[in-house]
Design a protein that fits this description.
By secondary structure, the chain is of the alpha/beta class. The chain has ten helices and nine strands. It has one domain (about 5-210): TIM Barrel (Alpha-Beta Barrel), CATH 3.20.20. It has helices at about 5-10, 30-40, 55-65, 75-85, 100-105, 120-125, 140-150, 170-175, 190-195, 195-210, and strands at about 15-20, 45, 70, 90, 110, 115, 130-135, 155-160, 180-185. It is globular and about 45 Å long. Bound molecules: 3-phosphoglyceric acid.
Length: about 210
């Protein structure tokens, strides 16, 4: 088995943008995923924040086979078990508690823990995690914070999320330690509630078009 230091990069593959979606109605899962995939965003993070989240992951996997589904907002070992049971391709957390890291080290699922500070980053590196979510990224310094982390932590790779928007994409991707940028702005809950699938698809396509080559 590949170690947790390598698995997340393999799981992310060519993913550069990771839409985080909150699904309140199971009927929204498939059209939402379809809109994102059609817009060029094939990797989708479903936040485990609603009662239907795990069922939504299964629905997307069943009906949108070209989507890669990530279980997000993993807060506890139990959430990790839910992600595995739902069949998620990998799991992402905004935090990195000792209990969660211990469960993730023993877990076959690629896992990206969350950090906000250099000491938190060192805490996950010592457990073997080199790909981390930087959350909440804009509140903790945005791209400048990750620029500063490059020299002391040359092997760390980051997925910034939290307050991100299309306007900082160039700044994030100018950094060699950023693997992908995540956020809910790619598929806001109000658009999901409104069933605005065309709008979500167009926004996704526009964001993909802005990615550096
Ligand atoms: C996350 O868990 O990554 C955040 O909730 C996403 O933050 P955003 O809603 O500010 O994009």
């Amino acid at each position: 088995m590949t170690s947790q230091s390598e698995m997340p990069l393999v799981a992310l593959g060519s993913t550069r943008l990771l839409p985080l979606v909150t699904i309140e109605r199971i009927a929204d899962a498939v059209p939402l995923a379809r809109a994102l995939v059609d817009g060029g965003l094939a990797t989708i993070e479903v936040a485990l924040r609603t009662p239907v989240a795990a069922a939504a992951i299964k629905e997307i996997l069943r009906h949108v086979p070209d989507a890669k589904v990530v279980a997000g907002n993993i807060l506890t070992p139990h959430d990790l078990a839910i992600a595995i049971h739902a069949g998620a391709h990998f799991a992402v957390s905004p935090i990195a508690t000792p209990a969660l890291l211990d469960a993730a080290v023993r877990c076959p699922l690629p896992f990206i823990p969350g950090i906000a500070t250099p000491s938190e980053l060192m805490g996950v590196i010592t457990k073997g995690f080199h790909v981390v979510k930087f959350f909440p990224s804009m509140a903790f310094g945005g791209p400048e914070a990750l620029r500063a982390m490059q020299a002391p932590f040359p092997h760390a790779r980051f997925l910034p999320t939290g307050g991100t928007s299309e306007s900082e994409l160039d700044a994030w991707f100018a950094l060699t330690n950023v693997v992908a940028v995540g956020g809910s702005w790619l598929a806001p809950s109000e658009d999901v509630r409104a069933g605005a699938w065309d709008k979500i698809r167009s926004r996704a396509a526009a964001a993909v078009a802005r990615l550096p080559g």
